[in-house]
Amino acid sequence: MSKRDLKKYLNELSKEQLEEQLLELYDKFKDVKVYYDFVFNPKENDLVKEAKLKISNEYFPIKSKKPKMRRSVAQKYIKHFITLGVDSFIIADVMLYNLEIAQTLTAEKEIKSEAFYKSMLNSYEQALSFMIEKGILYDFKSRVVAVNEKTSLQKWPNHYEFNAIVERFDY
Questions:
Q1: How many beta carbons lie within 10 A of that of residue 104, not counting itself?
Q2: Which of 161, 71, 162, 165 shows the shortest CA–CA distance to 116?
Q3: Contact call for residues 68 and 115 (beta carbons, < 8 A)
Q4: What DSSP designation does 9 have?
Q5: What pLDDT shows up at residue 171?
Q6: C-alpha torsion sign, points 113, 115, 120, 125
Q7: Pairwise CA distance, residues 124 & 76, whole Å
Q8: Contacts of 103 (CB under 8 A, 6+ apart)
């Protein structure tokens, strides 16, 4: 069904029928419930705390000794925040937090996995692209530069690629 067809169908419904359909969607689909819960009670601070706790647990686990270092955990939250329409500054903060917490780990422990460094490079590039798209890169300039500089200081194998990304975006 196209958007135009949907609009036509919705215009034919009475207010009561529309309300009934929305309530049915709310009951039937978790994503609809999550969306409306956020819209009417957008506890962004709680969402950010939860996301940062889960992300930090990937690098500094509470229950086990070995960090999992899964980029997908942060990506899941970032995608969820974008879907909900969370403020761009909050999303950018979480994106950079993921990189910063990973660098905190690499300052303490050598990581030999090339995939880890590649995934952090992807996260960095996505974060910068997102901030440029939203026009907020300048607001996060100091953190963006700090992440880039730490890749050199910590001798990440791909630190030249981080530098190239910064130069390409040339803010």
A1: 14
A2: 71
A3: no
A4: H
A5: 55
A6: positive
A7: 16
A8: 147, 150, 151, 154
Q: Give the number of other CB atoms < 10 A from CB of residue 102.
A: 26
Residue with tokens 């949907």: 6
Instruction: Tell me how far apart the alpha carbons of residues 165 and 131 are, in angstroms, rounded to a whole number.
Output: 13
Quick one: 19 exposed, middle or buried, by C-beta within 10 A (0-12, 13-18, 19+)? exposed
Contact residues for 93 (Cβ-Cβ < 8 A; gap 6+): 48, 140
Summarize pLDDT for 91-140 with one digit per residue, the tens.
999 999 999 999 999 999 989 999 999 999 999 999 999 999 999 999 99
Please check the confidence at residue 19 and state whether its pLDDT lies above 70: yes
Rounded to an integer, the average pLDDT of 12-38 is 89
Structure tokens at 50: 């939860």
